[in-house]
Write a structure and sequence with these properties.
952 residues, eleven-stranded mixed sheet, 34 helices, 35% helix, 20% strand
């Protein structure tokens, strides 16, 4: 063939015949045909490897060349391939790496179009057992879009991580012009070659495509010294290019990408391997890990790297367990006089783990590491010994009656067997223990579906109970530690207990068939369940299960609802209430329900709940959302009342009145004003319109709501009720009471949450930032641990996540941070709070009615407004200071009393504009209007605090 467009250099390795074939096949299968493969064989390559290479060359002699340079080092093999390449661009693959179908075409076209000397794209590597692949997380922003840069300094992130170890090609002319070669004195020369090439060549093109897949997971422990040296040389390249400021980023990436995974993999290494890696680390890491960079890592990560740097194999193993099982206390922590908590190893700031918050949890709530140190089989008996870690701040009392037992639990948790622990020897840093057990007599499985049993230990001191798995390195047990088993179904069901260490690093026992009767029985069972009639029976059973599941599918239920249930007559006086899609008993539907209940109206009230009925009124009928009973009640209800929207698939019965109380005034664009909705197709927009058309009454609380929400949802004037929100009646009552009687004593909720009167209560309630889908945990913009550290003596932070999200909170001192996300009624929390911190949540419109300080933490205000759209300029109309950083927020809290006076006028104007219709009697007016046929003269004054029935 004529000169190819791309030359692919493939280095072969001993024992990698299949991997070599896969790599070369991926080159030959490229959609760009002018591609050649250069297979470079190491010296002394075995016959099988040479045969595989020869077969590939024979299959495509004009596209595959085999080179034998007579050397063994990977760098020299690659250099030989570079010297022999004839293509316009040259790309290097390790054995096992495979090109994507259009990889060469993508690289060549980008290079030709941009005249770039280096073209790079993404790559993925194997994970776990090698059956799945994943791109490194840092790749997405790097290759988010295709772009071209004139010099390496315009895309320095290429050298922060090891982005150029594969998946890129270099123009052959640039290779020759700059004499680019792999350093043959460096085992990890691939880490250095890419950044070095990027630094000296001209134009660089980045393509938004994956180029290479199948890259092996790097093993930093195999040649740690070479890895550290490669990293050091890359740092020299950065300094030489005038990018010394990226040195710190490169150091941090090196720690996270190489050393932390090395620590995390310690339990999977044999004891000798752990000692070897630790000894190498003690020799090469000191001086290579800058302490300022190390201190930027999360606590357990930096502890693991520090212990590895010291060559402490046992300590590194403990840190690895803490990394693999988050929240586990894996070492006897010590508490200094200043309250700081340290990992064992001296008062080293790197070993400061105070922010983990273990010191705030009592003995019974801690997840303690119980290290299994011995598992020995003596006949039918098994000797188990280990040590339970105890931190210095907690543990069993010195005179407490200490007892312990082992629990053997079948994997599904349906059965448990116990064995007492014979010996307990507590000391200041832990509890050493040992016991003998006979698994054959103790464990009596049936032998069919209960073949795997997890082992854990329970320690009790008469007051607290601590439960811990038995952690162990993966080489602690092996085939020699098998013991006899006695299943209830006899030895044909199994005959041997085989211990093993799970992927979560704890001890488990598996029932195995080692002898002929059990093996024969298992083969017969396998045949009986896999021959043709059995397969047909399984398929039939699977089809029946699918039919059963279809009866509970929402689509089928909605079809039955529309076809049959809507024909049922309406039950007079029946009302179905729902709040936030059934997640809580709160908001305006609750206020309306309590007004109905207080006035004794003869209405049949039904409440829908999503998951748990806890917290819902016991005197109302409760139905689970999307259950058949739920559909029955909706089809027969005379009234629907909710604040979010009943399922769009469910049509409203013809004789039903739908009251939509809504859940807040709008800052961000809603309904048909949303970009997301405008981008939908016509059927999707029509579906939303049909859902909105079900509303008979829609509550608004100001002219702003009429101009925004009513217009955004295309609601006619006749459907609007200008009453304000019933949920806000409680806030206006709380304000009136505070002005006439003072704020103290606080409501009863304060006692339930453990809030003393003298502490300032700050409510943090951020807006919803996700999209459609399941509820997920989100990282809060406000660091609760930093808040507790700075204001913990005087303030309590109440964290209220959006009902579609959940907050992940760090452990903090008792009484400083409280998660109130599961509290049903947010109005109670608003009435309790002294200060509100939010961002764009509609909760600020309600809280302004209390005339209390509001702080807006909005670091991404401009980006959020651009993405979601907004109805007004928040900075112009905000009811309080708008801050962009956490430090600015803390400064505002520090001077709250003196600075809030300047915001009172703005807050009053905000409340007047956005809450003009909130007068404190919304619930009464709504009930009088919507339920007019059932109302009698009101016997009560407007409701007071939410959750409390008004007094007659």
């Amino acid at each position: 063939m004529s000169a190819p467009d791309v030359s692919c250099v493939v280095t072969a390795a001993e024992g990698g015949e299949e991997a070599l074939t896969a790599s070369v096949r991926s080159v030959l299968d490229q959609s760009l045909r002018a591609v050649e493969a250069l297979v470079v064989l190491p010296a002394g390559a075995p016959a099988a490897l040479r045969t595989a290479a020869g077969s590939l060359a024979g299959h495509a002699p004009d596209r595959v060349r085999v080179l034998d340079p007579g050397t063994d080092s990977v760098a020299s093999l690659r250099n030989a391939g570079l010297d022999a390449a004839r293509g316009t661009y040259v790309l290097v693959l390790d054995t096992g790496e495979r090109l994507q179908r259009h990889a060469c075409r993508t690289l060549w076209e980008a290079g030709t179009r941009t005249r770039a000397d280096l073209v790079a794209g993404g790559w993925s590597r194997l994970t776990g057992d090698g059956t799945k692949e994943q791109e490194p997380a840092w790749q997405q922003p790097l290759f988010l879009r295709s772009r071209t840069v004139g010099r390496f300094t315009e895309a320095p992130e290429l050298a922060v991580h090891d982005a150029l170890v594969t998946g890129f090609c270099v123009r052959r002319a640039a290779l020759e012009r700059h004499a680019l070669r792999y350093d043959e004195d460096l085992t990890h020369s691939g880490i250095l070659f890419g950044p070095l090439a990027a630094a000296v060549v001209g134009r660089i093109a980045l393509v938004r495509r994956r180029i290479v897949c199948g890259r092996a997971v790097p093993d930093a422990g195999r040649d740690l010294a070479g890895l550290v040296e490669a990293h050091r040389r890359v740092c020299h390249v950065l300094v030489a290019q005038g990018l010394a400021e990226l040195r710190e980023e490169r150091d941090r990436a090196f720690l996270l990408d190489h050393l932390v995974p090395l620590v995390r993999g310690f339990p999977e290494r044999p004891a000798a391997g752990r000692e070897r890696v630790a000894a190498t680390a003690a020799r090469v890491l000191p001086g290579s890990v800058p302490e300022p960079v190390l201190l930027t890592l999360p606590p357990v990560e930096r502890v693991g790297v520090r212990l590895l740097e010291r060559g402490d194999a046992e300590g590194t193993l403990g840190a690895a367990y803490a990394l693999r099982r988050r929240g586990t206390v894996a070492a006897p922590l010590s508490v200094r006089d200043d309250g700081r908590v340290y990992w064992p190893g001296g008062p080293d700031p790197v070993l400061d783990v105070t922010e983990l918050g273990h010191q705030y949890r009592p003995f019974g709530e801690l997840k303690l590491m119980n290290r299994l140190t011995r598992y020995e089989v003596h006949g039918s008996l098994v000797l188990l010994a280990g040590r339970l870690v105890l931190p210095a701040h907690t543990g069993p009392g010195p005179d407490a009656p200490l007892t312990a037992h082992l629990e053997f639990r079948v994997r599904d948790g349906s059965r448990t067997f116990r064995a007492p622990v014979d010996s307990l020897r507590p000391d200041t840093t832990g509890i050493s223990w040992s016991t003998r057990a006979d698994p054959g007599r103790l464990l009596r499985p049936f032998g069919a579906r209960d073949t795997v049993w997890d082992v854990r230990m329970v320690v009790e001191d008469g007051r607290d109970r601590a439960v811990s798995d038995l952690f162990a390195p993966h080489d602690l047990v092996g085939p020699a530690d098998r013991s006899p088993a006695r299943p209830r179904l006899g030895r044909v069901a199994g005959d041997t207990w085989e211990p093993y260490i799970t992927l979560r690093d704890h001890l488990a026992l598996r029932l195995e068939a080692r002898h002929r009767p059990a093996r024969t029985a298992r083969r017969l069972v396998h045949y009986a369940t896999h021959f043709r009639p059995a397969r047909r029976a399984r398929l039939l059973l699977r089809a029946l299960r699918r039919r059963r599941d279809r009866l509970h599918a929402r689509g089928f239920k909605a079809s039955v609802y529309r076809s049959w249930l809507l024909r049922l007559p309406v039950r007079r006086g029946s009302v179905v209430f729902e709040s936030h899609m059934g997640t809580c008993y709160g908001d305006s539907p609750r206020a309306v329900h309590e007004e109905v209940r207080a006035r004794g109206l003869r209405l049949r009230c039904v409440w829908a709940y999503a998951e748990s009925p806890d917290g819902f009124p016991q005197d109302a009928r409760l139905v689970r959302r999307w259950s058949w009973r739920y559909l029955w009640e909706l089809a027969r209800a005379e009234y629907w009342v909710d604040n979010q929207g009943f399922p769009q698939d469910l049509d409203k019965p013809s004789g039903t009145t739908y009251l939509q109380t809504w859940h807040g005034s709008a800052y961000k664009r809603m309904g048909f004003d949303e970009t997301r909705v405008r981008m939908q197709n016509a059927p999707q927009r029509e579906r939303l319109q049909q859902a909105v058309n079900r509303f008979d009454h829609f509550l608004v609380r100001s002219g702003h709501d009429e101009r925004t929400l009513a217009r955004a949802y295309r609601l006619p004037e006749a459907k609007l009720l200008r009453t304000g929100y019933p949920r806000n009646d409680a806030l206006l009552a709380a304000r009136a009471r505070a002005e006439s009687q003072g704020r103290l004593p606080r409501p009863a909720l304060a006692a339930e949450l453990g809030l003393p009167d003298h502490r300032l209560v700050v409510l943090y309630a951020p807006t919803f930032r996700g999209g459609p889908g399941k509820r997920r945990r989100q990282r809060l913009l406000l660091d609760a641990a930093r808040f507790a550290e700075r204001f913990g003596d005087t303030c309590t932070l109440l964290v209220r996540a959006h009902y579609l999200e959940a907050a992940s909170l760090p452990a903090c001192p008792p009484g400083t941070v409280v998660d109130v996300s599961d509290h049903h009624d947010v109005s109670e929390l608003l009435a309790l709070a002294d200060v509100l911190v939010t961002d764009y949540s509609s909760i600020m419109f309600d809280y302004a009615l209390l005339d209390r300080p509001i702080l807006l933490l909005a670091p991404d205000l401009d980006a959020y407004a651009a993405e979601r759209g907004s109805y007004f300029d928040l900075r112009e109309k905000a009811p309080g200071p708008v801050v962009a950083t956490e430090e600015e927020l803390f400064d505002e809290l520090d001077r709250l009393k003196s600075a809030d006076t300047a915001h009172q006028e703005r807050r009053a104007a905000f409340a007047a504009e956005f809450g003009a219709y909130d007068r404190g009697d919304a619930a009464r007016e709504v009930v009088d209007t919507v339920f007019a046929r059932y109302t009698a003269p009101s016997r009560t004054v407007p409701t007071g605090e939410a959750g409390h029935e008004p007094q007659p």
